[in-house]
Write the structure tokens for this entry.
Amino acid sequence: MVRGPAEVIAGRFTSRLHDERVAAWLGIALGVSFGTAFVTGLISHFMQHPPGWLHWPSRPVNLYRVTQGLHVIGGLATIPLLLAKLWTVYPRLFQWPPFRSAGQAIERGAVFVLVGGAVFQLATGLFNIAYWYPFPFFFTVAHYWTAYLVVGALVVHVANQASKVRHTVMTRPEDAVPRRAFLLTVAAASGAVALATVGETLSPLARLALLAPRRPGTGPQRLPVNKTAYAAGITAVPPEWRLRVTGAVGRELSLSLADLRALPVRTVRLPIACVEGWSASGDWEGVRLRDVLRLAGVADGARVRVESLERYGAYRTSWVEPRHWHDGLTLLALGLNGEPLALDHGAPCRLIAPDRPGVMQTKWVGGLVVA
Amino acid sequence: MNGTTAARYGAYAVGTVLMGIGAYGIVAHVPDLFGWAVWFAGGAVLHDAVFAPAVLLVGAVVTRRPVLQGALAVGGVLTLVALPMVLRLGARPDNPSILPLHYGWNLLIVLAVVAAVAAVVWWRRR
């Protein structure tokens, strides 16, 4: 029998850890982690682009903080799993002939989509949280749609491997291959990555977050900032600033800062929970959004568009659904951590609501438009 | 067709639909399709042609020293994850709350911890 060059290469892999049993356990772990990332990613996507039928709750306050923390820190911890799995199955890249039937060719095609997509998702996700954008596409759009490709290929792959995996993990190995040590090392790598980053969202572990791109408590008024006033093109609070409430209202309002401060002022402790996975709590002082809307005579079921003074940007406005504006924790904040709101945090007035991504906590608010 | 086979074909159908949704979305919403494709295929090619051979080469050099191999693997993957932070490629002069730490030093601390743990494991296995 003639051996192809690829087959010669495949024969050179001497480690007995390149085996089905290791691949099966890593595959199960990857199935769980990619499944979790897909679900939490969909939550984040549909919170920002809600279809009409979806009504995201305003409680528990920290729900989005947890789902997005899981998405990002879990995604980082998946990197060692994926690399270990690819190392384990690497010899199969050189199997000869490459395929023996049309079915096998399709199977290998699906594996290519799975590998390419998985590497793509983890790499672009990592670059995104590091605020580095070397790629020629919008991160959110490409990351979102590529997720369906990956999960689709994953479902096909699971269907192809399920019976083999079930058989493999249900039988006891009869050899002395040190699989347990290998898998424990992979788990240690995942755990180390998670431990060195999770403090950017779990503040009790903040001091351990040596490799996280953010640190809670670091930033103006002890809170990190995603978009500065400079980046938003805002240099100062306009002296003639007023909050205008228009649209489907009983009466239009134009409120000065003094008018706002004449309403009952509350202090709430709420997190900024960023799509990039970090989160940090602050003590926000301001007036309830619902108090302002009631003053304008807004119907209970109305949706409200909060508009920023920013001229450009995908996030210059955000929608507030009834559940969120009825919630007494939803404020138009004027102060943070005992001081008047810093310009980088959206002075003179910003939205802060429970269980909502940071990009939807609109800063430099100039108007409320009721639909 | 028994139950297992039916489930498998059902999964093929679900997977194909999901991949179809993804492919449609990318074609419809990513303007630079070629750029996306370069990144998509590029990750797999870079892994298979550069990264994996490099790892295998290191593995061949430190063969039969499992604790050292493990320490290099854990330290290597931590370095890989930390690299965008260490290089500060995303730093912005207007926003010091982005990448606020000394990531080079921090990575060295983390690697020192990995080395210490590996030394303890090696000592106990002797």
Summary: Strands of chain A lie at 243-247, 253-255, 265-273, 279-288, 304-308, 317-320, 331-336, 339-340, 350-352, 365-370. DSSP finds ten helices and ten strands in chain A. Chain A has two domains: 5-208, 220-370.
